[in-house]
Specification:
By secondary structure, the chain is α+β, with helices and mostly antiparallel strands. It has 17 helices and 17 strands. It is 49% helix and 13% strand.
Length: 620
């Protein structure tokens, strides 16, 4: 009889994979130094029950010794790096726990699904269904369905935008995280569409693959689109070059067509499509210089003309019409410019569109009912319902104003003051090249063990000569982030651990395995390829949904590569032999030879199970 602990562990794994895209922004329980949500609860329960099961069986897990050694080496080096960190040691140690949870997820999955095609498929369906629900939420978000707002607010503080344009973030905190998750999930859905026998299951998997593809495009994440193209390119190449991968052609082609259609529609309807593809963010979009009067003298209740010239020094066209048109606005400030008067801001429409490099001149009738005295006018460009240019670091121009005595309304003497709306300007995002330069500086200073796990974000500014910087920023490169945080030794250990399933996948793709095995390995290879391609422009080791999915895919890929070889493993080696039934709950009597597939076709006996599945595949 199947172990209850084993079933519970597998159930927890399925629950974790199904809910992986839905990490709430607010924790369920906060312990001060550590916040818990449903993903962390499930993750902790999964690893805990697995360890309890190992202890109750009083036997080591059926995993190669070199896998354990590689995992222990990587985590040991990360721990040593954290302990030797000269700053933020507590944060570094906390991040080691995050790394350990991912590695343990890899080990747990590797053992739970080992030799079990039915379990591999079940995990794939859990991942795919969760990704599908999240993608549908994202598509509804882009369609502007207000009924989804309360749901989406559970997972993020605010939608992701670039300029006026919404970027799909679905059930994730930020659009880039969504892009990574969907680009990893899309190839898995394609594999299910290529291997499932039921027509409706195939159709559902293809629909989810297409939705994930469209979702990646709508995140407006350039690295995500590149990674998705690489993954689909691999699948299509395999599909057209070898007959055993031919089943990938239709679902991959549909997902590709869906993504390209979304990209084409964006290029036609998104006004800032070209600037988005050409720039890292919108900080260079909103730039202007101004020519304004140095002084003005006003008489209450009498309009005075002021000629204002604004030049577009940014990267987008200032549009004069539409929901998010550009405009010139002015605000009243106190004479010392320290405060803003509680007077409504005046906004003036542009007479025509203004392209980058062009200027627009407006004649403004300035009228006031302010009490006599000295004031200032702050002139600045804005995009309606989006932002003021001063929010992107381009300050308003100011005019000194003297209001002469005269007839004023009784309310004029009661004008109050409030803090200036432009006193706080967020730190501008650092260009990738600058972040990479800082990472190289850290690597040179801490070559062997790095500065400590997750410490790049805390110290990179010092290497760029900054006095203040955004400590939520990564190196925007997975490989440089690893080298800066855990050094050459840690990066090599990571490469060794990750390289084992990658090598296993490559060997499986070259070997004459069964059609189902070949299709599974192709999907896993495409998913991992997307992760590593995107890793050249981003780093995402800290995001729970992404790093867990990555490690789980690696665990599934190793299990898939071992299908059909055997059900037993030589201690300390990755060599496999035909099962003699030792320790196998489905072969309790230790009958020599391969375990036979049962009458229900659940795939328990690996060699015959795979063969039966392949026969089913060819019969379609």
């Amino acid at each position: 009889m199947r172990s209850r602990t084993d079933l519970l562990t597998f159930g927890l794994l399925l629950a974790l994979m199904l809910t992986l895209p839905f990490e709430p922004i607010r924790p369920l329980v906060s312990l001060g130094f550590f916040d818990l949500n449903q993903l962390k609860f499930l993750e902790a329960a999964l690893i805990g029950v697995w360890l309890i099961g190992l202890a109750s069986r009083r036997e080591p897990p059926r995993l190669p010794r070199d896998t354990w050694l590689a995992a222990g080496l990587f985590l040991g080096i990360a721990l040593l790096s954290a302990l030797l960190a000269t700053a933020y040691r507590g944060e570094a140690l906390k991040f080691v726990g995050r790394l350990a949870s991912g590695v343990f997820a890899f080990l747990v999955v590797r053992e739970l699904v080992q030799g079990r095609l039915d379990r591999i498929r079940a995990v794939l369906w859990a991942i795919t269904l969760g990704a599908g629900v999240s993608a549908v939420l994202g598509l509804g978000e882009m369609a502007g369905w207000p009924v989804l707002d309360p749901v989406l607010r559970l997972f993020k503080l605010a939608p992701t935008r670039v300029g006026p344009d919404l970027r799909l973030s679905a059930s994730f905190q930020y659009a880039t995280i969504a892009a990574v998750f969907f680009e990893l999930a899309a190839p898995l859905a394609i594999v299910l569409a290529a291997t499932e026998a039921g027509r409706w299951r195939r159709a559902l998997a293809m629909a989810i693959a297409a939705a994930c593809s469209v979702a990646v495009v709508l995140t407006l994440t350039r690295a995500g689109i590149i990674a998705l193209v690489a993954a689909f390119g691999l699948l299509l190449t395999l599909a057209v070059t070898r007959r055993r991968w031919h089943a990938l052609a239709l679902p991959t082609g549909l997902a590709c067509a869906s993504g390209f259609a979304a990209l084409a529609l964006l290029s036609m309807h998104m006004r800032n499509f070209d600037p988005r593809l050409a720039t890292e963010n919108d900080w260079g979009w909103y730039a202007a210089t101004y020519d304004v009067p140095a002084t003005l003298t006003l008489t209450p209740n009498t309009a005075t003309n002021a000629v204002i010239t604004a030049r577009n020094t940014g990267e987008v066209v200032w549009t004069a019409g539409g929901a998010n048109s550009f405009a010139l606005g002015y605000r009243w400030l106190s004479g010392d410019a320290a405060s803003q008067l509680e007077v409504p801001t005046t906004v003036l429409d542009l007479p025509h569109d203004v392209a980058p490099g062009e200027a627009v001149q407006l004649t403004v009738d300035v009228d006031t009912r302010l009490p006599p005295g000295d004031y200032r006018l702050a002139w600045g460009m804005l995009q309606q319902q989006v932002l003021w240019f001063h929010d992107r670091g381009y300050p308003d121009a100011e005019t000194q104003v003297h209001v002469m005595g005269g007839t004023t309304s009784p309310a004029a003497s009661r004008v109050g003051l409030e803090p200036r709306s432009d006193l706080y300007v967020p730190l501008p995002p650092m260009p990738r090249t600058e972040l990479w330069s800082a990472a190289l500086g850290i690597i040179r200073q801490h070559p062997l063990l790095g500065a400590g796990p997750d410490n790049f974000r805390h110290i990179y500014g010092a290497y760029l000569g900054l006095t203040a910087w955004d400590d939520r920023v990564s190196a925007n490169n997975l490989y440089l982030e690893l080298l800066a945080d855990v050094g050459v030794l840690g990066a090599l250990a990571f490469g060794l651990l990750v390289g084992m399933p990658v090598v296993s996948m490559l060997r499986g793709l070259r070997s004459p395995g069964s059609p189902t095995q070949a299709l599974l390995l192709a999907g896993f290879a495409a998913s991992v390829l997307a992760y590593f391609v995107h890793g050249g422009l981003d780093s995402f080791l800290e995001f729970t949904p992404v790093y867990l999915l990555f490690w789980v895919v690696l665990g599934l890929s190793m299990a898939a590569a071992e299908l059909g070889r055997s059900d037993a493993m030589l201690s300390g080696s990755t060599s496999w032999v035909l099962s003699e039934g030792r320790g196998d709950p489905y072969n309790p009597h230790g009958v020599a030879g391969p375990v036979r597939h049962d009458a229900h076709g659940d795939g328990r006996g690996v060699p015959q199970g795979v063969a039966a599945d392949d026969a089913e595949h060819h019969a379609r």
